[in-house]
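In response to the reviewer comment on reproducibility (Comment 2.3), we provide here a single inverse folding case reported in full, input and output, so that an independent group could reproduce the run without further information from us. The structure tokens appear first.
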């Protein structure tokens, strides 16, 4: 296998670096431009526009924009990096299906694992950036933040760095329960930046965010639970760093797993303890 250490691309850069003879680190590196949207800001997107009169028009409604305080804006930028990196970096390990890496210290292959990292660098202009996100400060609740993956852009609110509860009727076994799910919007939307679809595929209907408890608690559903599926961006990126040289190399595959335990971030309002026979 031929190893490429660095790759530069439009959506993100990446590097694959050896940690020791049996471990690599694969880091997805994002340069992000955060745009401070004020009431006087003018911009036009296919479903959203602002003409500089303090009102934002969107598919889901009309929103009045408040001005950003300088201190609040600097805090938002700092926390954006902190929140996204804390949630997505060092959360997955890629396991190979067979030995694939030959270290310089030896002559035989081994099954080196890949630790999946993510880093964000804030930049000052869109020309420098992989991703450009506009950040609004709407007076009203209910704005639906979104990512336009093809355009490497997104539109978020000042509230999207905080975790919020959402209640949904959810299938639990054969019953329908009222369940509250805790999710941080920015982490869900950054999943789209990574190329991940909703848990039930492309679309924004309620069912695309899940039907069962297992689906709804997923990060790409209504909750914050990460699974091995969410390691797909790193798995896909490996094809740019581990270049096959032989037929054997072409049969090497990687599978993602979550690296550490996670909190349960939902509350089943209709849960009942199991009854025992007396």
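Designed residues, in position order:
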């Amino acid at each position: 296998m031929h190893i490429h250490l660095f790759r530069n691309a439009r959506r993100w850069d990446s590097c694959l670096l050896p940690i020791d003879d049996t471990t690599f680190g694969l880091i997805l590196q994002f340069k992000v431009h955060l745009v401070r949207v004020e009431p006087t800001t003018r911009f036009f997107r296919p479903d959203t526009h602002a003409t500089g009169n303090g009102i934002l028009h969107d598919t889901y409604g009309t929103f009045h924009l408040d001005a950003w305080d300088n201190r609040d804006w600097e805090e938002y930028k700092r926390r954006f990096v902190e929140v996204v990196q804390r949630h997505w970096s060092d959360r997955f390990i890629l396991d190979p299906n067979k030995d694939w890496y030959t270290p310089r210290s030896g002559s035989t292959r081994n099954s080196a694992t890949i630790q999946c990292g993510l880093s964000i660098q804030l930049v000052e202009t869109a020309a420098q950036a992989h991703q450009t996100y506009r950040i609004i400060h709407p007076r009203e609740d209910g704005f639906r933040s979104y990512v336009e993956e093809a355009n490497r852009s997104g539109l978020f609110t000042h509230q999207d760095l905080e975790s919020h509860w959402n209640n949904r009727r959810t299938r639990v076994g054969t019953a329908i329960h009222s369940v509250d799910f805790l999710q941080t919007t920015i982490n869900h939307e950054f999943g789209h930046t990574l190329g991940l679809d909703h848990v039930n595929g492309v679309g924004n209907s309620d069912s695309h965010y899940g039907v069962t408890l297992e689906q709804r608690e997923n990060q790409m559903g209504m909750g914050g639970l990460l699974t091995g599926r969410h390691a797909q961006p790193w798995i896909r990126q490996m094809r740019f760093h581990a270049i096959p040289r032989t037929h054997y190399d072409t049969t090497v595959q990687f599978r993602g797993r979550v690296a550490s335990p996670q909190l349960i971030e939902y509350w089943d309002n209709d849960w009942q303890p199991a009854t025992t026979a007396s």
